[in-house]
Amino acid sequence: MTDRLQITKNWLPRYTGMSLDNFGDYILLTNFRHYVDKFAEMFSCDIQGVNNPMQAATNSGGLTIINFGIGSANAATIMDLLSAIQPKGVLFLGKCGGLKKSTEIGHFILPNAAIRGEGTSNDYFPAEVPALPSFKLHKFVSEKILEYGHDYRTGVVYSTNRRIWEHDRAFLEKLKKMTSIGIDMETATIFIVGHYNVIARGALLLVSDVPLTPEGVKTEESDLQVTKKWADSHLKIGIDAMTEIGEKGEKIKHFMY
Predict the structure, then answer these.
(1) How far apart are CA 110 and CA 25, in angstroms?
(2) What is the dihedral of CA 187, 192, 197, 200, to 10 degrees?
(3) Pairing state of beta strands 89-98 and 26-30?
(4) What are the boundaries of each domain within the chain?
(5) Are the CB atoms for 224 and 66 separated by under 8 Å?
(6) What is the pLDDT of residues 9-46, one digit of tens each?
(7) Domain 4-248 listed as CATH 3.50.50.60
(8) Quick one: which H or E segment has residue 72?
(9) Per residue in 87-145, pLDDT tens?
């Protein structure tokens, strides 16, 4: 195989265990297997790829959810593979660390942009190209958040390849100087690789910890509490937004220069 589309059409089912014709037009991406489990339970649909690197499920309405794993490299991989089906929209449901006093655990963030600290995105566009979501997709998601009675924050998030950095005082000071609202590992990559593959994309992030303070660093216990309190709302907002955007949302256009 030498053609890129030929490769992605072969590899997307190989990674997810799902045939191409079972993918929907709109996609939810997540790092969490339990989001896929909950989705399958809600819609009584089968989970594909149980023993594959990624798991996926599609409901009867044509909405697909994929657990692609953790990190920037995996985010780039799934956004490349999704070019095989050219979805109409992709929304990432992830968690992030809050970096502002106004950003507390349980808050939602709709990023205006992401700083490309992960490095993976440099293989797709020069460093000067900003990592941006599709505005019309985010506009629709924001309306759904408010319908559910939640508040949300907007701002720039910092994406990094580093998973263990909370002990690094120099890195923490760097984050403060960048004035980012949150930090994660995937958002910048999803935005950039989505742009590269002409895929409308967005991210709805749930603040799961506040790592600028020692007592705010995520632990297994604290993460379980966040999941218990807010994960269902996180998933339901994503489901409603991506289910209804095709019917009620403005048409999303993608411009390349």
Answers:
(1) 22
(2) 60
(3) parallel
(4) 4-248
(5) no
(6) 999 999 999 999 999 999 999 999 999 999 999 999 99
(7) no
(8) helix 72-81
(9) 999 999 999 999 888 788 889 999 999 999 999 999 999 999 999 999 989 999 999 99
Contact of 184 with 117, CB cutoff 8 Å? no
Q: How many helices (H) and strands (E) does the chain have?
A: 7, 8
Q: Which two tokens stand for residue 90?
A: 């992709």
CA distances from 101 to 37, 89, 104, 160, 216 (A): 33, 32, 7, 21, 12
pTM, entire model: 0.93
CA distances from 9 to 80, 187, 197 (A): 10, 24, 14
Q: Do residues 137 and 110 lie in contact, with contact meaning Cβ atoms separated by under 8 Å? A: no
Closest CA to 185 of 206, 218, 158, 209: 158
